[in-house]
Amino acid sequence: MTLKSNLKNILLVIFATLILSACSTAKKTGDIDGDVYTGKETVEFLAAGVPDRVFFATNKSSLTTASRATLRKQATFLRKNKNLNVTIEGHADERGTREYNLALGERRANAARDYLMTYGISGKRISVISYGKEKPVNPKSSPLAWSQNRRSVTVKVN
Amino acid sequence: MKKILFTLLFYFIFLIKSFALIEVDITRGNLDPLPIAVSPLHVDVKSDNFKDLKVKELGENISEIIEKNFKNTGLFNPLKKDAFVQKPDIAHLKPRFEDWRLIKAQALVTGKLLIKNEKLKVEFRLWDLTAAQEMTALAFTTTPSNWRRVAHIISDKIYERLTGEEGYFDTRIIYVAESGPKSQRIKKLAIMDQDGSNTKYLTLGNELVLTPRFNPTNQMVTYMSYFRNMPRVYLLDIETGTQEVVGNFPGMTFAPRFSPDGTKIIMSFAKDGNSDIYTMDLESRVVERITEHSSIDTSPSFSPDGKFIAFNSDRSGLQQIYVMRSDGSNVKRVTFGKGIYGTPVWSPRGDLIAFTKMHKGRFYIGVMRTDGTGERLLTENYYQEAPSWSPNGRVLVFYRETKAGDKGEGFTAKLWSIDITGYNERKLSTKTDASDPSWSSLLSK
Fold this sequence. Notes:
The complex is a heterodimer of chains A (158) and B (445). Chain A has 4 helices and 9 strands. Chain A has a single domain, classed as CATH 3.30.1330.60. In chain A, strand 7 (86-91), helix 3 and strand 8 form a beta-alpha-beta unit. In chain A, the strands form 3 sheets. In chain A, strands 6-9-7-8 form a 4-stranded mixed β-sheet. Chain A is globular, with a radius of gyration of 19 Å. The N and C termini of chain A lie far apart (70 Å). Chain A has 158 residues and is an alpha+beta fold. In chain A, helix 2 (65-80) packs across helix 3 (98-118). Chain B has 445 residues and is mainly beta. Chain B is built from 4 helices and 31 strands. Chain B has helices at 55-73, 88-93, 97-102, 147-163, and strands at residues 9-11, 34-38, 42-43, 76-78, 107-116, 119-128, 133-142, 172-179, 186-193, 200-201, 209-214, 220-225, 232-237, 243-245, 252-258, 264-271, 274-281, 287-289, 297-302, 308-313, 320-325, 332-333, 340-346, 352-359, 362-369, 376-381, 383-389, 395-401, 413-419, 426-427, 433-439. In chain B, the strands form 7 sheets. In chain B, strands 1, 2, 3, 4, 5, 6 and 7 form a 7-stranded mixed β-sheet that branches. In chain B, strands 10-9-8-31 form a 4-stranded antiparallel β-sheet, with no helix packed on it. In chain B, a hairpin with a 6-residue loop joins strand 20 (308-313) and strand 21. The longest helix of chain B has 19 residues, at 55-73. The chains are: A alpha+beta (158), B mainly beta (445). At the A-B interface, helix 3 and strand 8 of A face strand 15 and strand 27 of B.
């Protein structure tokens, strides 16, 4: 067997192990799917049926299917209330360095903003601010609390 | 500050080029600290009173500060004074070496002071007891209210003589003082002497403030503030209290640090979900973009020669440390170990980069060579980050947080220091909870 095919085999095994371990960690426990919060606790509403926040996985700023559904409701609400402006606050959990978390919060808030904009809301109506890990909604040091804190929150400004 | 910073009148009494028998190796963890006797400084009976200063106790108080400084290095073992065998004034003239050796001391510090016409005159001598000779002697004059700094300067001189390295006692630490419940923390800029005394608050706590850093060449500070809910980098003169926003950026600026010559601020600017690194020249106000990448680029830190920048980026997927030339070219990833890496800070000696590492839910402070090799993890804990170097590059100060319960109870944030040998970890005394420490340069240099 050549060295090359040997390496290939090793890589395949590593890859398979990674997939397996990824499956075993991505468990659904209560209000957390993967490590994205899916529950109702801490959520407030911009109007009836319009949740104010979406949640993120650790170190990620991509929007889940549920987050996109929430943001579409926000977009519909903002289209109906044309004089309303909002600020999107981006947040991170406490398990990361402060400066990186400031950047991550900014990226999360902008992910939500971009999505609202693709649904026809003018960027001029949406300002963005990152608080990094400075304003946890749940002060507990637990995976559930951290999942609730990895969020972007749409706040009415007028 | 210049008013507080005093004019030190140094003059050497006499300096013997002796070959000393004692020396302290600070490159390894020292498990056998040098026994040192610090005699109280003799207070001249002709001394005047000065304001509310307890002049009679001043010699004792100065020696206690020196002892505390030495003890905190982990390199020295200051001996108990009740075993001392000679009066301070007599020992200062010429110690009976064999008597001091009897109490197992290897080095002896003696001194005397006089307050006259609102001036404090201090002299001290360091004696090598084994070789039975004087190692160094120094006298200086200052205003009496500077007596604590006198103790720190004496400590620095002795540390330098015994270790061959510059000291770090006549320094200050700026940090963020924290109070209130975890989800509504009140944060103020605070400054204290390196030993925890003279705490002063520089902001009132009305707005969130983060990451203060000293200019290595003067008493300016750069930090981040949410003043008027606009997260921006500020410049603060701690002498006058004046502050200003750095640059005219349309979005969040953060993670500021000075260049080693103090003429520029390097920081991140975040816009539209992307953070890149910029510098601003403080005099010309010219802004330069250093990185241009769709990933997060933050936590920049110059090498002491100004030629390179270490920074934090997630361009490979997760947070890693990169090094580039100061013009942004030649970007190289340097961390490849297990876990993710943040907060690179270049040592003032230039040889190492300190960092925070996160792996399997644990946080580490470590050092590595500037090409990423030779990684050494110094301390592991539940949460800790943000190392800052002592000006001689031998000690790191950082902050550590504890786990919080259901309502956030049990949460604390404290400053800690550790030698780069990995030994001598200790908690700094702060009046409140504390985070984001930054160590100043030596004040009298």
